[in-house]
Write a structure and sequence with these properties.
Blueprint: H1 9-26, H2 70-87, H3 97-119, H4 125-156, H5 159-186, H6 210-225, H7 229-248, H8 254-275, H9 288-295, H10 314-323, H11 339-355, H12 362-372, H13 374-382, E1 387-401, E2 406-407, E3 412-413, E4 426-439, E5 442-453, H14 461-471, E6 484-498, E7 501-507, E8 530-536, E9 552-560, E10 570-582, E11 585-596, H15 604-612, E12 628-638, E13 646-655, E14 668-675, E15 684-692, E16 717-718, E17 721-722, E18 731-741, E19 747-757, E20 766-778, E21 783-795, E22 804-815, E23 820-821
Antiparallel strand pairs: 1-4, 1-22, 1-23, 2-3, 4-5, 5-6, 6-7, 7-8, 8-9, 9-10, 10-11, 11-12, 12-13, 13-14, 14-15, 15-18, 16-17, 18-19, 19-20, 20-21, 21-22
C-alpha cells in the first residue's frame, strides 16, 4: 500500500496517470473530425424555435429527431466516446503543459493534505449520514431533472429538451464507466477505512469520487445547453453541493472530489462538443486545451517568469542602485523578486542614470543587469518565447575544524542563512544544479542538490533534560547524528503570471524583511516549505484618497512545515503588504499564523479565525482555534541630506498582537544602518544590524514567547531549523559587514557576528563570536568562485566546559551556462 502521507514514487505515478487520463478526456473530441461543433449523429436540421420539424431537409441524410431510435444512437455514441477518451493522450502537445501542470500541482497538494483535512472535520455519525443522504439526493435531482426533460420532450415536442436530457444521460454514463475503472485501478481507501490516510492500491474505491464526477457531468451539459446565469448557477451550485457533501460525509478526500469533478466536467464537454446540434441553441463549449492554445499568448509583462534565487548577486546590485536613489519601485522586504521585476528595476535605474549620470560603478551595475536579463528585455521587443535554461551547476566543499553549533532552536548556528543545509565537523559537500523553463504564462523552476555531512554524537542526558524543560516536552531518547548522504530538492515550483499577479505552488524561498542578515517572519535560514503563493510583480495603487499611500505590493502564502513533532503536521499562512508614501520611505505590515496540526482541527471556522481574529487563542476551542499569530512591521528610510549615502531600516515582530506598533514592549526588533559608499571610496560599503528577541516582559522568561507557544512547542521550525531569525529564542545579537566591490559582481567581504542567549532560557546562558572573510570572484561571464574563512568562539556551559573554537573554510565553484530555447 502507498500512503498519501509519505509522498513517493507511487503517489507520483497516481498523479501522472490522472494527468494522462484528464488530458485524454480534454483532447477526446480533437482527434475526431466532427469536433468542430457540427453534429453528425444528431444532425437532422432543426427549427430554431425548439419545435421538432415535420419534414426532413432535402440536403440532409440524417434521421429526424422524432424518428430516431435513441437506444441504438446511445450505443453508437457510447462506443465512439469511450474510444476517443481512452486513446487520445497520443494527441498531447507541449503546450498542454500550461494547464496539465497546474492540475497536477493542485492534485498533488490535495493528496498531501487529504488526511489532515478529513481527520479534522466532524466524525459524528449523524452528521456524516446527513451529508451522505444530501449528496445522493443532489445527484438524483440532477439526473432526475435531465431525465424529466427527455421524457417530457415527447409530450411538448421540444427538441432542445430532448437533446439536453439525452446528452446529460450520455455524459453521465460515460463518466460512470471511466470513474469506476479509475476507482478500482487506484484502489484508494476511504477516509473511514484503514488508517484514515487514504492509502492507494489498498482495498478501497475512494479515488475519484463517483458522485462528484456524475454530478459535474450532468451540470456541465445543462449549463451549456441553457447558458443563462440562472441555469448555470443552479446546475453548478448543485454539483458543488454534492462534492462538499461527499467530504462532510467522510466518503471521500478533497483530491477525490477535485479529480472527480474535473473528469465529469471534461467528459461532459467531450460529449457535448461531439454531439450537440448548435441549431437548437446552447453555446459553444471550448475544451480547456483549445482555450489555452488559442488564448494564452501573453504580452512580455505577463509571460512566465521564475523568481531570482535569494543568493544571487542581483539582490545586492539592485539594493545598491536603490540606496543611491536610482531605483524606487523595489520592496526589499518582499523577496524573492521575479526576473521580470528585476528587469523593470534595471530599466528604472537606466532611466535615472540618463537624468543623473553616475560614474561610480552604477553604469557597470546596470550593464551587467541588462546582460543577466537579456531574455526579458528581448521579450519586450519581440514578444516572449519558450525558453529552457540550466541556470547554474555548482559544488561547494566546506571543512569545519572544531565543534560547530547546529541547533538554532536552542543553542544557535555556526552556519546561518544557508537554506537548512546539514553540516558537522569534518568535510561537508553540496553539489547541485538549478534550471527553469518558461512557456506561455507559466514557469517551472527546480533546484536540486546532493548533500553530504559527517556524523556526530547526540546530546547527552543533561542537555536533553534542559531541552525537555525549556520546550515543555517529554524527555527524548539519545539519538546520534547519522552521516548525511541525500539528494534534496531545495526548490521546485510552478508559477503563472496573470496580468502581473504571480501565482506559484511548490517548495519556494521567501524572505520577509529589509535586513541583510536576518528576517523575523521568514528568511532563508531553513529549507523552504511547500506553499501556495500569490505575489505582485509590479507595484499598484489603491483608488481615491488611498492613492497617497503610494505604490504598493502584496505577498500571500499558505503552506505546511515539515519535521514538527509537537504537534505534527501544523499548517501556516502569511500575508504582507508594503507601500511607499514617498520615494524615500518604505513601510510594511505583515502577519503569519501557525494553526492546525495534530490535536487541532482545520475546520472552515478555524481557517476563518486564523485570518481575521485578533483575540487570544485561549478563547477558542480546539475545533476552531486560530493558532499562533505573529504580527510584523518594518520600515526603511533614506536619511535627509545623505539620501544617496545612508539608509536606516528596521524589522520587528510581536506574537499575539496585530502589529509591533500596537505592542512595542513585547516586540522583537532588528534595526540596521546601510552606508552605501564612503567619501573617496565609492566601492566600499558598510552595514551594521542589531537584533534581540529577549523581550523585557515576564511572558518572555524561559524562551517561551518568541518562536514558541503553549501548544506549538517547536514553532516556526522546518526540519529543525528556525525559519525566521538565526538569533532564535531569548537572544541578543549584532552583525556588521564591510564589502569592497571590485566590479558589479565580484567582491571581498569582512563580517562579524556576536550572539548572546539569556540565562533564563539556557542555564548559565551562552555567547557566540565569529568573524569571516568571503571572496566572491567572477572569472568570466560563466564561471564564479566563492571562498570563505570563518573563525568562531562559543561558550555554552550546558553544552561543554570552557571556551570552544572552530574554523570553517569553504570553496564553491559555479558554472552559469548560456540559454537555449525550446
Amino acid at each position: 500500500m502507498i500512503s498519501k502521507s509519505h509522498w513517493g514514487l507511487g503517489s507520483s505515478l497516481v498523479v501522472l496517470a490522472i494527468l494522462l487520463l484528464v488530458a485524454g478526456i480534454a483532447l477526446g473530441q480533437e482527434q475526431d473530425p466532427i469536433a468542430t461543433g457540427k453534429n453528425t449523429n444528431m444532425n437532422a436540421p432543426q427549427q430554431k424555435n425548439d419545435q421538432e420539424p415535420q419534414t426532413e431537409s432535402p440536403s440532409s441524410n440524417a434521421v429526424p429527431v422524432a424518428k430516431r431510435n435513441w437506444a441504438v444512437q446511445l450505443m453508437k455514441d457510447f462506443g465512439g466516446d469511450q474510444v476517443s477518451i481512452w486513446t487520445s493522450p497520443k494527441n498531447l502537445r507541449f503546450s498542454d503543459a500550461s494547464w496539465l501542470i497546474p492540475v497536477g500541482g493542485i492534485t498533488s497538494a490535495l493528496i498531501v493534505t487529504d488526511a489532515t483535512y478529513s481527520n479534522h472535520i466532524s466524525h459524528n455519525p449523524s452528521t456524516m449520514s446527513h451529508y451522505n443522504t444530501l449528496s445522493t439526493a443532489g445527484v438524483a435531482a440532477l439526473a432526475g431533472g435531465a431525465g424529466a426533460m427527455w421524457v417530457l420532450s415527447y409530450k411538448n415536442h421540444n427538441s432542445h429538451w430532448r437533446e439536453t436530457g439525452f446528452l446529460a444521460g450520455e455524459a453521465a454514463i460515460n463518466t460512470f464507466v471511466v470513474t469506476e475503472a479509475v476507482k478500482y485501478g487506484f484502489s484508494r481507501d476511504r477516509p473511514i477505512q484503514g488508517n484514515g490516510n487514504g492509502d492507494f492500491f489498498a482495498n478501497g474505491v475512494s479515488f475519484p469520487s463517483e458522485h462528484s464526477s456524475v454530478a459535474w457531468a450532468i451540470a456541465g451539459v445543462v449549463a451549456h445547453e441553457y447558458p443563462g446565469p440562472i441555469p448555470k448557477i443552479l446546475a453548478y451550485g448543485l454539483a458543488g453541493l454534492v462534492s462538499y457533501s461527499r467530504l462532510r460525509a467522510r466518503q471521500h478526500f478533497p483530491s477525490d472530489v477535485f479529480v472527480g469533478g474535473i473528469i465529469g466536467d471534461m467528459i461532459a464537454q467531450n460529449v457535448y462538443s461531439r454531439h450537440h446540434d448548435p441549431e437548437l441553441g446552447g453555446e459553444e463549449w471550448q475544451s480547456i486545451s483549445q482555450y489555452f492554445r488559442n488564448h494564452l499568448h501573453p504580452s512580455a509583462g505577463s509571460a512566465g517568469t521564475p523568481f531570482v534565487p535569494l543568493d544571487s548577486w542581483v539582490y545586492p546590485a539592485i539594493e545598491r542602485l536603490a540606496a543611491r536613489g536610482l531605483v524606487h519601485s523595489e520592496f526589499l522586504g518582499l523577496r524573492p523578486w521575479t526576473r521580470i521585476a528585476c528587469a523593470n528595476f534595471t530599466n528604472e535605474a537606466a532611466e535615472s542614470l540618463e537624468e543623473r549620470p553616475d560614474t561610480t560603478q552604477m553604469d557597470g551595475i546596470v550593464a551587467d543587469l541588462r546582460a543577466e536579463f537579456a531574455a526579458e528585455f528581448a521579450a519586450y521587443e519581440n514578444g516572449p518565447e519558450n525558453i529552457a535554461k540550466v541556470e547554474s551547476v555548482y559544488t561547494r566543499v566546506m571543512g569545519i575544524s572544531g565543534t560547530p553549533l547546529t541547533d538554532s532552536y536552542h543553542f544557535g548556528q555556526t552556519i546561518t542563512n544557508d537554506n537548512g543545509r546539514p553540516y558537522q565537523e569534518g568535510i561537508n559537500n553540496v553539489t547541485g544544479f538549478s534550471a527553469y523553463t518558461n512557456f506561455s504564462r507559466f514557469s517551472i523552476f527546480v533546484d536540486g542538490e546532493y548533500q553530504h555531512a559527517p556524523s556526530a554524537a547526540g546530546y547527552p542526558l543533561s542537555v536533553r533534560q534542559v531541552i525537555a524543560n525549556v520546550d515543555q516536552n517529554p524527555l527524548q531518547p539519545y539519538q546520534p547524528v547519522a552521516t548525511t548522504n541525500q539528494f534534496v530538492i531545495q526548490q521546485a515550483y510552478l508559477s503563472t503570471n496573470i496580468e502581473s499577479w504571480n501565482f506559484s505552488f511548490g517548495r519556494q524561498q521567501l524572505y520577509w524583511g529589509p535586513d541583510y542578515g536576518s528576517a523575523f517572519l521568514f528568511s532563508d535560514n531553513a529549507l523552504p516549505i511547500y506553499t501556495f503563493r500569490l505575489s505582485k510583480i509590479t507595484p499598484f495603487y489603491l483608488p481615491w484618497i488611498m492613492k497617497y499611500l503610494g505604490p504598493m505590493s502584496i505577498d500571500l502564502f499558505f503552506g505546511r512545515t515539515q519535521g514538527n513533532e509537537f504537534p505534527p503536521r501544523p499548517l501556516m499562512h502569511g500575508e504582507k503588504i508594503s507601500f511607499k508614501p514617498t520615494e524615500n520611505v518604505t513601510l510594511g505590515f505583515s502577519r503569519t499564523t501557525t494553526f492546525g496540526g495534530e490535536g487541532r482541527a482545520m475546520t472552515p471556522s478555524a481557517i476563518f479565525h486564523s485570518y481575521f481574529s485578533f483575540t487570544s487563542s485561549f478563547n477558542y476551542a480546539s475545533w476552531d482555534n486560530p493558532g499562533k499569530r505573529n504580527g510584523g512591521f518594518e520600515f526603511s528610510y533614506r536619511l535627509p541630506f545623505v539620501r544617496n549615502w545612508l539608509t536606516l531600516y528596521a524589522d520587528s515582530m510581536t506574537p499575539d498582537d496585530p502589529s509591533p506598533i500596537d505592542a512595542p514592549r513585547r516586540a522583537a526588533v532588528n534595526p540596521g544602518i546601510y552606508l552605501s559608499k564612503f567619501p573617496h571610496f565609492n566601492k566600499l560599503d558598510f552595514r551594521v544590524e542589531g537584533i534581540y528577541t529577549d523581550i523585557s516582559t515576564s511572558r518572555s522568561n524561559g524562551g517561551q514567547y518568541i518562536y514558541w507557544e503553549t501548544f506549538y512547542h517547536d514553532l516556526y521550525t522546518n526540519l529543525g531549523y528556525i525559519m525566521g531569525s538565526w538569533v532564535g529564542r531569548e537572544g541578543k545579537g549584532i552583525q556588521a559587514w564591510s564589502t569592497y566591490w571590485f566590479n558589479p559582481k565580484s567582491s571581498l567581504q569582512f563580517a562579524y557576528r556576536n550572539q548572546r542567549v539569556s540565562s533564563d532560557f539556557i542555564p548559565k546562558g551562552e555567547t557566540i563570536h565569529d568573524g569571516s572573510v568571503n571572496l566572491n570572484y567572477w572569472l568570466n561571464k560563466e564561471w564564479n568562485v566563492s571562498t570563505l574563512v570563518q573563525y568562531e568562539q562559543w561558550n555554552a556551559p550546558v553544552l561543554a566546559t570552557g571556551l570552544q573554537k572552530n574554523w570553517t573554510s569553504s570553496v564553491e565553484v559555479q558554472y552559469w551556462p548560456k540559454n537555449w530555447k525550446k
